[in-house]
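Budget justification aside, the reviewers requested a transparent look at the raw inputs and outputs of the sequence design task funded under Objective 1. We therefore reproduce one unedited record. The lines immediately below are the structure tokens for a 341-residue chain.
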């Protein structure tokens, strides 16, 4: 054992003892990087995948060799898109910092797919391969994409409708998803003119951040007319099916273009409603953007549902009905100070 340090006898064990003391000392006095890591861990508490990705980054031997300043910079970069792909990129970046000659494979996805501006590329060791089999650009695990035809790089997280799957070959020689995101609004529901623009903007921001955290969300419901709401209310009461709402026509914010429902995409890009902790994170992100989240309601909780009505409560939607009867959606939005469409 002593020969590891090139020493022997007493001086060897003394050296081992010293390094142990140093490491204990580091634990008792947290560095700026330790503090930042704890902040991120607290912030991401409701997204277990993001917390695990953070742990993968900080457990990386190359990351551990960075200076404290470099570690803080890596953690800040991680927080921009806290997911396993970003963590993998930053592990590669740490290796490169320690050895500038290295080109670690962790910097780029080994496989996957990207659909951008209607064009689909397959990913092969960081290269984007077009339908014609030619290299059309490059992609990194931090989500940066550079198409040959573009003058500047862009991020896969810029547009909530970007389809991206970044995959990496694991130690088990199997391909694993680092990130797998499908188009979040394939039916253009947030572009519906009956959805208030401010509502659409806040929903987009919520979903955009969720996607950066590798949560594959999708808009499944937007505006609903008073008549449609009455039909939905009848379900499970005077019509077949199970009860899905307590709101009669005019008492749901959906009726005024101020509510949206989301689901998660499953691995095949189909809407699903998994029973997992990510709903809480979604609700947390929505509330942080001044939206009301149905998951916080008593009685029938509605975790997919977010709504926006500054100054009014969730149960006060019906007070908007006279304005709606008189001047339609623009009058409702005007009364709430939300401007035009
Ligand atoms: Zn809803």
């Amino acid at each position: 054992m002593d020969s590891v340090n090139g020493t022997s006898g007493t001086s060897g064990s003394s050296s081992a003892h010293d390094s142990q003391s140093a490491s204990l000392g580091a634990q008792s006095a947290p560095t700026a990087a330790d503090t930042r890591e704890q902040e991120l861990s607290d912030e991401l508490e409701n997204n277990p995948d993001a917390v695990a990705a953070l742990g993968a980054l900080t457990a990386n031997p190359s990351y551990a060799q960075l200076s404290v300043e470099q570690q803080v910079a890596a953690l800040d970069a991680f927080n921009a898109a806290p997911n396993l792909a970003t963590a993998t990129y930053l592990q590669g970046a740490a290796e490169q910092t320690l050895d500038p000659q290295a080109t670690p494979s962790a910097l780029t996805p080994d496989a996957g797919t990207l659909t951008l501006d209607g064009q689909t590329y397959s990913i092969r060791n960081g290269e984007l391969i077009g339908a014609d089999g030619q290299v059309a650009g490059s992609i990194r695990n931090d989500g940066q994409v550079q198409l040959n035809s573009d003058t500047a790089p862009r991020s896969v997280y810029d547009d909530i409708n970007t389809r991206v799957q970044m995959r990496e070959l694991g130690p088990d020689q199997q391909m694993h998803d680092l990130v797998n995101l499908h188009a979040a609004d394939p039916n253009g529901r947030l572009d519906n003119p009956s959805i208030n623009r401010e509502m659409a903007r806040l929903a987009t921001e919520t979903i955009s951040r969720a996607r950066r955290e590798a949560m594959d969300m999708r808009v499944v419901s937007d505006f609903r007319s008073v008549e449609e709401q009455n039909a939905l209310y009848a379900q499970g009461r005077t019509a077949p099916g199970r009860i899905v709402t307590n709101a009669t026509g005019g008492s749901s914010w959906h009726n005024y273009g101020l509510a949206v429902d989301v689901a998660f995409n499953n691995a095949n890009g189909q809407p699903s409603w998994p029973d997992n902790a990510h709903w809480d994170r979604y609700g947390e992100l929505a509330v942080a953007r001044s939206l009301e989240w149905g998951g916080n309601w008593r009685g029938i909780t509605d975790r997919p549902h977010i709504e926006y009505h500054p100054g009014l409560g969730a149960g006060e939607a019906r007070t908007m009905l006279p304005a709606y009867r008189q001047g339609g959606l623009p009058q409702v939005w005007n009364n709430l100070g939300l401007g035009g469409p």
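The longest strand covers residues 163-169. The CA atoms of residues 37 and 75 lie 7 Å apart. Computational costs for records of this kind are itemized in the attached budget.
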